[in-house]
Amino acid sequence: MLVGSIEAGGTKFVCAVGDDNYNIVDSKYFITEKPSITLKKVIDYFKNFKIEALGIASFGPLELRQDHAKYGYITTSPKLDWRDTDLYGILKAGLEVPIYLTTDVNGSTYGEYIMSRMTGEKINSLAYYTIGTGVGAGIINNGQFIGDLGHPEMGHVNVKRHPKDMAFAGTCPYHGDCLEGLVSGPTFEARLGKRGETVPQTNFVWDIMAYYVAQALIQTTLMFRPGKIVLGGGVMNGEFLKKIKQQFVKLLNGYVSTPAIDNYIVMPLIKHNGSATIGDFALALTKVAI
Amino acid sequence: MLVGSIEAGGTKFVCAVGDDNYNIVDSKYFITEKPSITLKKVIDYFKNFKIEALGIASFGPLELRQDHAKYGYITTSPKLDWRDTDLYGILKAGLEVPIYLTTDVNGSTYGEYIMSRMTGEKINSLAYYTIGTGVGAGIINNGQFIGDLGHPEMGHVNVKRHPKDMAFAGTCPYHGDCLEGLVSGPTFEARLGKRGETVPQTNFVWDIMAYYVAQALIQTTLMFRPGKIVLGGGVMNGEFLKKIKQQFVKLLNGYVSTPAIDNYIVMPLIKHNGSATIGDFALALTKVAI
């Protein structure tokens, strides 16, 4: 049996076909042009395979309330061509298979959750943060996505400011110094005038950012007590992960127990940004009666 | 059919017997003495009624992992007499009925959730904060309590400090200036040298506290998108609620949609601190095959 995955992003649509063991059979990407062009290419691509269902992890904002008239639309996206686009409806009409649609970060979250369990980790709950151009998060609690009226937007929480970072106003157009405004990729340019890739780990800005990320992970820990927290996205790296874990342990101060820190706060199990594709396959499979 | 409720607190055990419409048939409280004394009185009380199940909302910390050898114990409580007490086991042996045990704040959370739905509110998710001697929270997400490895401890999250409150170190013995350390009842004495009841609403400390509580509610909103947030506990009052709502709207800055603010951030529907009793009845009823 074959299922499809679309990782729908602002710059490209990554399409993949997989079997029911999550092996990638074929994949191809298409540059994100106008919806009418890109979605036609995507539909034509999947028509080459006999997929039984499709999982989509998409940029947004998405309307995900099943009972809403605009269920499955990309709504107020800053990508103007894609505003008010019936992503679900167009793909459903074009491919005529069951579709599981969720946010980009939820796709990655589910991929990491499924793979963690397949590799023998006994977890029922997992949080995934992506720290890149923006900051987003997804949460699985007892096997289900969190979020009643919408998906979580945990990138925009407030955190306690670092004493050596009080003057920085933050980059979030909505909130200034929310988490995203303090640790996303563009903050490197705003703080230091250069790109993050060029900032050495010895620069104290990494410690400041680790302090903020650690606070967000403490919020998540205290609220959900997840079995594991996965950190992905372009800003993450091994040295930064170390600093985050150190700050987390210090700030939590043993208040609640967590799994051993090296198993608890980790980078993705699935390499090469592949978490969302695996997640999409798994979510598509939930739509197929087996 | 009758069910029982115990609201087990550090100063008293409030016991009640209710019918399956949540009407209180009888109630009595017992001062919290040593476990052997208090639990015997509680058992003797309930033996006067033919209860079919019991709901308990208890102080803690509690061991609530069902597969744990010490499931149902009060564990490392600061109340030394109650440390390592098999609350669940003793009551189960004494009363021989099914028991639903949860935290004090979870009991209140469930009571508010059930009553909101019974009065016609179409919500599946609800967050409840108690702001009193301590700060705690419970969350129902799609009808289920949140928390895999334990119950939420959202009273201890970090928040962005108010510019006019930077010097206050906070009162939390674990974290200093976490939420509880900044807004719980004892912070009035620590900041102003007098009890909260005597501090007029015109004192700016209420605005500072509202700023912190509002941030916690934003965290909850962004993480869970609950249908409603209920604020209970001894520190709450109508004027404080107003300030919290104002700060919440200002800080969220329209980033995500919520229900109308006056329906979204509210004080308990169930009066006279009765939320936990109703919640216990409802949780007890889940243990009875109807």
Task: State the main characteristics.
homodimer, 290 residues, Nucleotidyltransferase, domain 5, 5-stranded mixed β-sheet, 9 helices, globular, ATPase_NBD (chains A, B), magnesium (chains A, B), EC 2.7.1.4 (chains A, B)
Topology:
2 copies of one chain form a homodimer.
Chain A lengths: L1 E7 L3 E8 L4 E8 L3 H12 L4 E8 L28 H9 L3 E5 H15 L7 E6 L3 E7 L2 E2 L33 H5 L2 H7 L12 H20 L4 E4 L5 H15 L8 H4 E2 L8 H11 L5
Parallel strand pairs in A: 1-4, 4-5, 6-9, 9-10
Antiparallel strand pairs in A: 1-2, 2-3, 6-7, 7-8
| Major sheet: arrangement of strands of chain A | 3-2-1-4-5
CATH topology of the largest domain in chain A: Nucleotidyltransferase, domain 5
- Shape assignment of chain A: globular
N→C terminal distance of chain A: 10 Å
Rg for CA atoms of chain A: 19 Å
Instruction: Please give the oligomerization state of what you see.
Output: homodimer
Give the averaged pLDDT of chain A, no decimals. 94
Low-confidence stretches of chain A: none
Which two chains form the greatest contact, residue counts included? A-B, 45 and 45 residues
N-to-C series of helices and strands of chain A: EEEHEHEHEEEHHHEHHEH
For the record, the CATH class of the largest domain in chain A is: Alpha Beta
Number of strands of chain A: 10
**What's the domain count of chain A?**
2
Q: What structural class do the secondary elements of chain A suggest? A: alpha/beta
How would you portray this structure in words?
The structure is a homodimer of 290-residue chains. Chain A folds into 2 domains: 2-103 and 276-282, Nucleotidyltransferase, domain 5 (2-Layer Sandwich); 120-266, Nucleotidyltransferase, domain 5, CATH 3.30.420.40. Chain A is of the alpha/beta class and 290 residues long. The N and C termini of chain A lie close together (10 Å). Chain A has a 5-stranded mixed β-sheet with strand order 3-2-1-4-5, sandwiched between helices. The first copy, chain A, is 34% helix and 20% strand. The A-B interface holds A 123-125, 137, 139, 141-142, 144, 146-161, 174-175, 177, 215, 218-220, 222-227, 251, 253-259 and B 123-125, 137, 139, 141-142, 144, 146-161, 174-175, 177, 215, 218-220, 222-227, 251, 253-259.
